[in-house]
Write a structure and sequence with these properties.
249 residues; alpha/beta; TIM Barrel; seven-stranded parallel β-barrel; 8 helices; globular; hydrolase
Amino acid sequence: MQIDINCDLGEGVNIDDCARDAVLMGFISRCNIACGGHAGDDTTMALTVENALKQQIAIGAHPGYPDRDNFGRKSLTLPESVLLQSIAKQIESLYDITARANADLSHVKLHGALYNDAEGDPKLAHAIVALFHKRFPQLTVLGLANAAMEKAARDLGQPFLREGFMDRRYLNDHQLAPRSQAGAVIDDFVLCRQQTMCLIKGETFSSIEGKPLAFTVDSICLHSDNPQALHIASRLQQALHEADIRICA
């Protein structure tokens, strides 16, 4: 068996932050690089691409609401055309950097509040995937399993990877529990490992409200801003190895 492990990176502000990200890259197979909306600039993007090439992991764009003050975690009311223009500009910024580094941009994953808003709003999801289909048809969309972006990608014929989360609780409807809800973020390794194995094998695990859930995913996300991220990543790699599960994009 094999599983893709993805991580949102390039969200820091300096070389030291990029160096910490580079350590995490040894335990994942795919990185989603902040590209100027909620975080990231030309320097962090270039360093993150360089480190990803060294580690031979897949490189993707991680656009979010253009709101650095709130780290893209607050929903913004923007005209659709303005939002789509911002998303396209962010992806193009990373495209320019990957081109200069002779690197391939393989996928795109929305960030934070934009991710949640699109997954809960079929109209918004369709508009964003339509943008990808028109401007970036070669990019695979990485999005929440069983939600609006997956349906929009299928309707429009855009490649899609079903994403699950090892360190976040789910609501009964398969949406992610909001970070403001107690217990929404999992920082205990045993619980992360348990949820990861269930997502890989399609076995039952509990929502934050106690409902049994069971589905499979193509990629599992580890959040780099989890205080226990490196600890979880290193121990998870060992646990997967012991279970004969290979980490592979």
